[in-house]
Specification:
Elements (H helix, E strand, L loop, with lengths): L2 H40 L7 H6 L4 E6 L1 H6 L1 H10 L2 E4 L5 H4 L9 H13 L2 E5 L17 H14 L6 E8 L22 H14 L4 E6 L7 H15 L6 E4 L2 E4 L7 H13 L3 E11 L7 H21 L4 E4 L43 H11 L1
Parallel strand pairs: 1-2, 1-9, 2-3, 3-4, 4-5, 5-6, 6-8, 7-8, 8-9
Helix pairs in contact: 7-8, 11-12
Bound molecules: ligand G3I.
Amino acid sequence: MPDRRKFLTRAGYTTLSALLTMGFLQKDKQKEDQTTNEIAANYPNVNSPLRQLAAAKGKRYGAAISSEFLQTEKDYADLIARECSIVTPNGELKWNATEPQPGKFTFESADAIANFCEKHNIEMHGHTLFWHMGRPDWLPYPPTLKMIERHVKGVMGHYRKSKVLKSWDIANEIIADNENEADNATYGLRKGVKRELIRDLFLIAASVDSSKKFYLNDFGIEGATWKSDRFLKMIEYLKNSDVKIDGAGIQSHLWFSTAYGFDEKGFNSVLKRLNDLEVKPIITELDIIIDTPLPDSIKKLDQMVADSYKRYLDLCFAAKVDTVITWGITDRHTWIRHPDWMPGKTFRDNPSLWKFLRPLPFDENLQPKPARNAIAKAFSS
Ligand code: G3I
């Protein structure tokens, strides 16, 4: 082929492929604009702080927060003060933070959060007195009754007169993940944990400070599951033992996907059972992961996360839940992006997918996401 023809043919291909690419890009752009418009229509920007929208309905919105970031990131501290009426310390009240050596208590970082709360008129939810994780090396699980007594007296005693700390997760995650890991088939407690020990823990707590609200907190109970069944049985047992227990913390680390949905019927029955038992359900650690198949853009992912927040909260509010705490407020600090906690299979071995871990209402730059507007809409409706 003469050079000139070769050149023209090549030029023709180049033009054709450029036109095709432009066509595809235009289509992509149209799709993206459509997603943006849908998001804007479904979740319009509501500028009022979430705490204000929640308060208008007699509800509370809050987040798990870290004393370290309160001190080092002013934009983060300002956002918490603006949006939250309740906060949970991310780790500052765990056993390894408050009693790092047997009988030696430290409250510096937890007090920093309490002081911040006082200054900004925020309530503090105490998390937690008893957990199989967040333990100093010297502490066995379960701890002995003597250790429990010293710890509960030390920690609850320190906050007895607090103006902001109004509630405690007395025990966290005591139910095993499945029958094989359980000590007892009926109550499903983790290996070594006897129901009487949990009863005594609640009794000790009540003897130290019964002015606070007492919660049993767990995850994986947002549906009719082996775990929620055991969780409810433990609550019934505690109620029948005349132990002070005011509420159930439903953590709500939720996983959604286009491939699997959410057991609304089962979750409704859990909430109903708790209400029947006069144990108040609150949402203590909400965040939302979308698993494979992943959508083809971040915008769509954000929309799916927002839709999931809205669906979940509508159901909670219909069942009279009045408190929603997200586990963090910004994707900048979500535990889910931490290498130790990164969710299995899909994400751990695929760093290119980490950008799809966007479980919280504000993005890395503390800008509101559709999820934030979905929470606002749920509080307002
Ligand atoms: O603060 C230190 C930092 O100074 C150090 O450089 C760094 C090195 O890894 O560690 C930092 O501490 C980490 C801490 O989180 C603060 O980010 C700890 O290693 C890490 O173990 C700790 O993890 C926390 C975990 O509980 C254990 O306490 C997560 O942030 C926290 O999100 C997670 O929270 C739990 C709830 O309490 C119960 N429900 C599940 C939830 C998520 O796992």
